[in-house]
Amino acid sequence: MQLSLIPQIKHTNTDNFLLLAGPCAIEGEEMALRIAEKVVAITDDLQIPYIFKGSFKKANRSRLDSFTGIGDEKALKILRKVSETFNVPTVTDIHTEQDAEMAAQYVDVLQIPAFLARQTDLLVAAAKTGKVVNIKKGQFMSPESMKHAVTKITETGNSQAIITDRGTMFGYQDMVVDFRGIPTMKAYAPVVLDVTHSLQQPNQSSGVTGGRPALIGTMAKAGIAAGADGLFIETHFDPANAKSDGANMLELSLLEKLLSDLVAIREVVNRL
């Protein structure tokens, strides 16, 4: 897959890592534009290829009363406005074949949630849109098994696939990342490490997923050192009051320093 083929993506000739970053869910236009403006400024300064991330709806929730979205079309239109305002590509999750067709009209990259990485019809529907397809590795899947997920995309006639590792279940309430999987999966497609979801602590008795955001820097640095092609980081200016995944998101004010450190590590990796 060539990054330069993603519409509106910048800084593809810098040999820097790819960044997918933004809020977990689109909560409204003002918050999305506020986050995008900050991240675009930082990534332009550091010359990082950047894709704005925001879920137009959250279909996979622990509790019935959990926030799921502000309305599909409303959220997708906000994603389009982010793209048009800041001249950046966007990515969002899809959950059904109908979602693939609808979301493809608004965003540049379609993301397959980890729990759905084996859903053949969904992957094929995403591939048929001609969009880049970012497949999150299921928490229950081996790195080697992701070869077959990628094949479902490529054999549909779409060569634009990305794999994102978001950790593997460790017991019932924790996640771990096996960094041995990064070089394994890079044989199939570019590999992104989902830093923030890898630090989730799911299946809490409260029905609200926990997390360990203090380790975001550690996880991100390890990912770049291990050779990841990109990073996925959810960020918000007020994680404590975010409507989804606040427990493991990065405070937006901390992003610039972290990315500066990661660029320095990437330069060392490139030299080696």
End-to-end distance: 23 Å
The CATH class is: Alpha Beta
Q: Tell me the β content.
A: 15-25%
Number of helices: 8
CATH H level, superfamily name: Aldolase class I
* Helix content range: 25-40%
Identify low-pLDDT runs.
Answer: none
Number of domains: 1
Please give the radius of gyration in angstroms.
17 Å
Number of strands: 13
Give the spatial strand order of the biggest sheet. 1-2-3-4-5-6-9-12
What does this structure look like?
With 272 residues, the protein is α/β, with parallel strands linked by helices. The model has no long low-confidence stretch (mean pLDDT 94). It is 33% helix and 18% strand. The protein has a single domain (3-271), classed as TIM Barrel (Alpha-Beta Barrel), CATH 3.20.20. The longest helix has 18 residues, at 29-46. The chain has an eight-stranded parallel beta barrel, surrounded by five helices. It is built from eight helices and 13 strands.
What's this model, at a glance?
The chain has 272 residues and is α/β, with parallel strands linked by helices. The chain has 8 helices and 13 strands. Helix 1 (29-46) runs parallel beside helix 8, helix 3 packs parallel to helix 4 (120-128) and helix 7 runs parallel beside helix 8 (255-271).
